[in-house]
Amino acid sequence: MHVNILYSLINLILDRHNSKIATTWSNFIRSASQNAQKPKTAIIMLNMGGPQTTDQVPDYLLRIMTDRDMIQLPVQSKLGPWIAKRRSEEVKKKYMEIGGGSPIYKWTDLQGKLLTEALDKMSPETAPHKHYIAFRYVPPFTDETLTAVEKDGVERAIIFSQYPQYSCATTGSSLNAIADFYKNRSLPDIKFTLIERWATNHLLAKVFAERIQEKLQLFDAKIRDQVLIMFTAHSLPLKAVSRGDTYPHEVAASVSATMNQLSVPNPHRLVWQSKVGPLPWLQPYTDDAIKAYAKKGVKHMILVPIAFVNEHIETLHELDIEYCDEVAKEAGIKQIERAAAPNDHPTFIAAMADVVAKHINEGHSVSRQFLSRCPHCVSERCKSSKEFYKKLCNYKENEPELATSTV
């Protein structure tokens, strides 16, 4: 009989408030339940996170604008808080327009539950698996998550970035937060390993292809093959691109893999969204591209959020409301659709499980790709972070390497 059912039955039979026997039994059953569910392998899911309520918006923006791993501003200690305060009311309004908060936690939590269920079947020797969410700018914060992982007494922990395409600003920032947590404390007796990029996984490409096909079917068959497929991803400061950040070419690799899976004659392009701050960023911008194509006579298009694995403010508001509704209508677009993010699509859950299972089976700790630095990187923080992960993951120079093309 399931321990939770047994616990409930005992509470019905015995008076917990007056019986010492009942208390003893309750504690025993509760302990048995916890032990039965004790995880062996932790899957630590890294992401930026998003405010679940509008009350969290000011602190959320402040953390982003003062995080030099995410964005570098001149006189950041002054300019960052000023930008955060200035934008708070505007951003609160946007969250109210999409339901009052970000759904990132909801989707990540569901994805984690479905992922660990799949892993329990695919890799019983490392089961039971338990997912842990580690956000950068809203709870649950990285330090809280690592504390919970240690408290649960897991044997191994797989750090799994939820940004399929690596960037120093996104995955790099989350990994630096883990390094910061262990800076002045002893490492726990846990086998840590790292999955920091998975941009070309064949099932990831397949789920994006399936999401695009869903929207292609909404167009008249006569013009369906002419619909422009516009892949859109969060932009990056040109300073980071010039330094050698791998994000742009990894996003492009995801686009290529998706189009190979899709196997349609439609034209496609990669554009960029969500510029923040005064410095120049990677272009063309998504809204400008919509306007420019409209002037060229392109009146049918699909927007595909290729670098986002779940819905959030940049899909639900920026793409759906600002671009598909306002910009497209003003530009004279006849029909524009937005492909859904992967969310809980079965193919996406299979993609995550495939990535993690291969990682487990191949016996990798941390990739050489991660340990290498950008050609023009001069950051001591980056250098020390790479050295930290060699130690955390017990990296051996002669460790077998999984080729990127097979991930």
Kindly describe this structure.
With 407 residues, this protein is an alpha/beta fold. It has 15 helices and eight strands. The protein has helices spanning 3-13, 20-36, 57-65, 76-97, 104-122, 142-152, 171-181, 202-216, 238-243, 247-262, 286-295, 313-331, 346-362, 368-371, 380-392, and strands at residues 41-47, 129-135, 156-161, 191-195, 228-234, 268-273, 300-305, 335-338. The strands form two sheets. It has a four-stranded parallel β-sheet, sandwiched between helices. Strands 6-5-7-8 form a four-stranded parallel β-sheet, sandwiched between helices. It starts with a helix and ends in a 15-residue tail after the last helix.
User: Could you list the spans in which at least 5 consecutive residues all have pLDDT below 50?
Assistant: 1-36, 403-407
Secondary-structure class: alpha/beta
The biggest beta sheet reads: 4 strands, parallel
Q: Enumerate the strands of the largest sheet in spatial order, edge to edge or round the barrel.
A: 2-1-3-4
Sum up the overall morphology in one term. Answer: globular
- Proportion of residues in β-strands: 5-15%
Distance between the termini: 41 Å
Number of helices: 15
Order of helices and strands: HHEHHHEHEHEHEHHEHEHEHHH
Count of DSSP strands:
8
This entry's quaternary arrangement is: single chain
Percent helix, as a range, is 40-55%
- Mean pLDDT figure: 90
Jot down its keywords.
single chain; 407 residues; alpha/beta; 4-stranded parallel beta sheet; 8 strands; 49% helix; 12% strand; disordered N terminus
